[in-house]
UniProtKB/TrEMBL annotation:
Gene3D superfamilies the record matches: OmpA-like domain, Periplasmic binding protein-like II
Predominant place of localization: membrane
Keyword Repeat: no
GO CC annotations, alphabetized: membrane; periplasmic space
Protein name: OmpA family protein
InterPro entries for this protein: OMP_bac, OmpA-like, OmpA-like_sf, SsuA/THI5
Keyword Cell membrane appears in the UniProt entry: no
Organism: Candidatus Defluviibacterium haderslevense
Membrane-crossing segments per the record: 12-29
Keywords: Membrane, Signal, Transmembrane, Transmembrane helix
Region (Disordered): 40-61
Length: 524
């Protein structure tokens, strides 16, 4: 008769089997190539689990406590996203580690949806552009919006693409142009037309819902030109034979200013947090501007946060903007008395006038001073050093006059400046005309070279008129350099005398039109 095993005997046998399995497994791991491979794989998995992705580190509680920032698919907000170590509220965020509060970025590409989200407090800070703000500020009046700070300037992110045969702004007259109305694209087009001496009524606007839609219409060859975003500009050139970029914000460098608005009541309740948010954002922007390594890290963060973006796409998006520093904000918002470039107040006021005249800015448009909240910028006194300095002027080399004289102008604006017979010095009225008709354009297109051409009628000898016209053009340049602090090397001075008439010299009216100064934007 066979005896039955006792419970204790079963326990001992189980223990022996487990011990055997343990030692066999240990032997395999330590003494065979298969086991060593498994061991290395296990260590990699453990390492990955101990360093979760930014998305995995985000948590519900952090998101609920976060300052929510509404943005669009754009590279110009990366200063804050970089400092935040991602788009989501996460435990690695420097905002959280250094200032004690989380931040979350929400992508809201649909403009009406983004505005509704802001009204309902789904986002606290909302993207805008100072140039297009006059078209919507009256509609937001019930929420008392104020501008908090500037994030970037568009520097190549916006472009005007044109079909074959269009080589200048003058060639756009009577043409169909696809553009998203009351957006930065629209602002850029209006500036471009004015620089070329045209009005909005001189072209046929084909209204689009977005810059992406404008690109599609251009690629289908339904229009002659379109205002698009990068990288759609490259796609347009690829899909439409003979198409070219007429101008981009790489040259029209101080027109589209990305900024953030917030409700005044929310700002007053969160004043200290907003000051720290601004400070951290500016530190992030300065670090990216100063280091290619940091820029590559920023591109990785941007690619992770934007749908369909590779790191290469993200790097291109960052390179298509000027990430604004604290010094740039001091300049733009009129807090540096020595700054001579485009200011927020000038840009806002100019575009208010333009959009009102075209019927796009309706209702009561508040003055700039009532909608600018300066506390965050003024509080950042610790942001010193060259990395936080404002952007300097572009350095122009002296142009070869013969080459520059024949280079085709992208835009030409004819301005009548009166001189006494035989004289070339500017009087006060002439200076006023230059200020009114051209200075803001020169500042807006601050990366463009400018050709100043003096012209006369045919009264007198040709040789003396050529000499006189060049002296008059030089007087204009001297004024722009001495009063508005523009780079002398930026200008090309030409004296045409009577040889570039735009009207007949047989009448006084025609001769008056020929006695003019031409302001021309030309390529490098």
């Amino acid at each position: 008769m066979t005896s039955r095993l006792t419970p204790f005997s079963k326990f001992l046998m189980t223990l022996a089997i487990l011990a055997g399995i343990f030692f066999l497994g240990r032997y395999v791991l330590n003494n065979t190539s298969f086991g060593k491979g498994l061991k290395e794989k296990s260590q990699e998995v453990g390492s990955n689990n101990s360093n979760p992705t930014r998305d995995e580190e985000s948590s519900g509680p952090l998101s609920k406590e976060a300052i929510n920032v509404g943005v669009v698919t754009w590279g110009g907000y990366i200063g804050g996203q970089y400092f935040n170590e991602g788009f989501k509220a996460n435990s690695q965020s420097r905002f959280l580690k250094e200032y004690g509060f989380p931040v979350e970025f929400k992508i809201l590409d649909d403009v009406p949806v983004s505005r509704e989200a802001w009204k309902k407090d789904a986002v606290n800070l909302l993207w805008c552009t100072i140039d297009a703000l006059p078209t919507e500020i009256a509609g937001l009046a019930d929420y008392d919006p104020v501008v908090v700070f500037q994030a970037d300037w568009s520097r190549g992110g916006d472009a005007i693409v044109v079909r074959r045969g269009i080589n200048s702004v003058a060639d756009l007259k009577g043409k169909k142009i696809a553009v998203a109305e009351m957006t930065p694209s629209h602002s850029f087009l209006l500036w471009m037309l004015e620089a070329g001496g045209l009005k909005a009524s001189d072209v046929e606007i084909i209204k689009q819902g977005s810059a992406i839609d404008a690109a599609q219409v251009f690629k289908s060859q339904q229009v002659d030109a379109a205002v698009v975003w990068s990288p759609d500009d490259v796609a347009c050139l690829k899909d439409v034979p003979g198409a070219r970029i007429l101008e981009s914000t790489r040259s029209a460098s101080n027109i589209i200013a990305d900024a953030f608005i917030a409700k005044r009541a929310w700002l007053e309740k969160n004043q200290e947090k907003v000051q720290k948010l601004y400070q951290g954002w500016m530190i992030g922007a300065a670090e990216i501007n100063a280091s290619e390594t940091n820029k590559k890290k920023a591109a990785k963060i941007l690619a992770e946060g934007l749908t369909g973006f590779s790191e290469e796409d993200a790097l291109g998006a960052i390179n298509n903007v000027r990430l604004c520093t604290h010094g740039d904000n001091l300049n733009f918002f009129g807090l540096n008395a020595d700054y001579k470039g485009v200011s927020a107040e000038q840009l806002y006021s100019r575009m208010t006038s333009l959009y009102k005249g075209l019927g796009y800015a309706e209702g009561k448009i508040p003055s700039w001073r009532t909608i600018f909240y300066s506390d965050a910028i003024k509080s950042a006194t610790a942001l010193t050093g060259t990395e936080h300095a404002g952007e300097g002027q572009k350095v122009f080399t002296k142009a070869n006059e013969n080459e520059a004289k024949t280079k085709e102008a992208i835009a030409t604006k004819h301005v009548s400046i009166s001189f006494r017979t035989g004289e070339f010095l500017l009087d006060e009225n002439s200076k006023y005309i230059i200020d009114k008709e051209f200075v803001e354009i020169a500042k807006g297109f601050s990366n463009s070279r400018i050709r100043i051409e003096g012209n006369t009628d045919n009264v007198g000898s040709e040789a003396s008129n050529i000499l006189l016209s060049k002296k008059r053009a030089q007087s204009v340049v001297d004024y722009l350099v001495n009063t508005h602090k523009m780079s002398r090397n930026r200008f090309v001075v030409i004296g045409n005398g009577p040889n570039k008439s735009i009207a007949t010299n047989d009448t006084e009216e025609g001769r008056a039109k020929n006695r003019r100064t031409d302001f021309e934007l030309i390529g490098e």
